[in-house]
Amino acid sequence: MSERDIVQVRIDGALVGIVGLNAIMAGLAADGKGRTDEEMKEELLRRVGEGNYIPRKAGTKYGDALLREFRKFRGEEVEEDAPQGVRVQILGPGCARCWQLERDVRDVMAELDLAGELVHVDDLREIARSGVLGAPALIVNGRVLAVGTVPSKSDIRKWLTEIQQEVT
Q1: Which of 36-40, 98-102, 136-140, 161-165 has the lowest mean pLDDT?
Q2: How far is CA 101 from CA 39, 54, 69, 110, 147, in A?
Q3: Is beta strand 143-147 parallel, antiparallel or unpaired with respect to 14-19?
Q4: Phi, psi values for residue 7, rounded to 5°
Q5: Using CA atoms in the order 33, 39, 80, 157, what is the torsion angle rounded to 10 degrees?
């Protein structure tokens, strides 16, 4: 765990990269005992703000999201902030097939004029947390649709069209 690691945190439905969050969480876990939620939010915002830009108007939303992430870091059960629309994850360490899957999904999303979030997760720890045991993997709105293979564009189009209809 490096002080320069970037962790993606969902804030108000969007993913935001936070530099050094794991190191901040580890430090607070050691010296943050006995603080109220409000005190923890303030301290998280202060520490995160030292190395990251936090829009002034979004301070409350950042505070809530950072407190949620801190609770997850400590192993507590938390309610996730729900993504808006379609959320596509490509899991893979960066091999040619992983990048091909990402390009194909991006092409299909553009063809369908599908608004949504496309994230390529290449951090092995994050991939392991998903429980998927092969790469590349395609996950859409939490559903594992393909593992260990690059599905055809027609399959990707069919899946994304079905999911788009569910969320609209």
Answers
A1: 161-165
A2: 43, 33, 29, 14, 11
A3: unpaired
A4: -115, 135
A5: -120
Tokens of 147: 């593992």
Write down all domains in the chain, each with its CATH number in brackets: 6-73 (no CATH), 86-167 (3.40.30.10)
What global pTM score does this model have? 0.57
* 3 φ/ψ angles, rounded to the nearest 5 degrees: -65, -15
Arithmetic mean of pLDDT over the chain: 87
Q: What are phi and psi of 146, to 5 degrees?
A: -155, 140
Bond preceding residue 136 cis, omega within 30 of 0: yes
What are the pLDDT digits (tens) for 74-85? Answer: 888 888 766 567
Q: What is the DSSP string of 53-119?
A: ---GGGHHHHHHHHHHHHHHHTT---PPPPPSSEEEEEE-SS-HHHHHHHHHHHHHHHHTT--EEEE
